[in-house]
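Session log. Operator J.P. requested a structure for one protein chain; no other inputs attached. Running the standard single-chain path with token output.
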Amino acid sequence: MLTLTHWRGLRDAARGASVAMGNFDGVHLGHRSVIDLAAAQPAPLGVVTFEPHPREFFSPATPAFRLMNAEARAHRMEKLGVTRLYELPFDADLAGMSAEEFAREVLCKGLGVAHVTVGADFRFGKGRLGNADILHDFGAHCGFGVTIAPLLHIGGLEISSTAIRTALADGRPRDAAAMLGHWHRIEGEVIHGEKRGRALGFPTANMRVQDLHLPRLGVYAVKVDVLTGPQAGSYIGAASLGVRPMFGENQPNLETYLFDFDGDLYGKHLSVAFIDYLRPERKFDGLPQLLEQMANDCTRAREILVQI
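Structure written below.
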């Protein structure tokens, strides 16, 4: 997949795509319907999205809300057959463009799009004054087609990133997965931690989770893809997402124990899929009680995961 982080001066080979456009946080089933409609056009399949998320640009102090980082979003796009990912920098220049300027300068002159597909609730341009119908009119003048995808519903409920955040915050990863069309994942690099797990016989891969909307804190049954390194592949395990109250720490962290794995994962990139919520995190009276609970967590996680 070709990933581009700019829109000016593109070579001809990077232009002329049929693009789905939006923020695509989580890449849920509603987003998938937009991408599928873009894929139906006789042109290379592309996605136009923005980094950082516009909400982060306009309200940098807002609590973390993103379901996935840019790396995870790109991996998901590639799995959906996207061949060109236009990850446009959302800066003061882009934020100050009117809807008409964005359509003319970015979509038409910059990217040379052949077709654009957006959701019915799409907004763009300074002050969010542009909508899907206005984009359709601009496309007629600029020479690209526009398809407006209807909002997607399941069981009478609209699929949205907000609903998915609620399901995750409630500890309902399977409900979130039903709306996403895939397991919710956290992706990133394995960092050095305190190495307590190794000393306790449960070596864990530690990952930062800052800037993400976090699922309910606690212990999960997980599936893990090791994305880089000589031991790349798929594994199962148990993960603790939390602040480690047993040791007096308060910075959220993701610690994943891979079953039947022996190797060094520092600096490697992992994709951790949340399958089932096992229990909330808690502070134990001592290490023997903690170790007993960790062993029970792993047993329960194995029982769940062999059925997936």
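Operator note: The chain has two domains: 2-154, 183-305.
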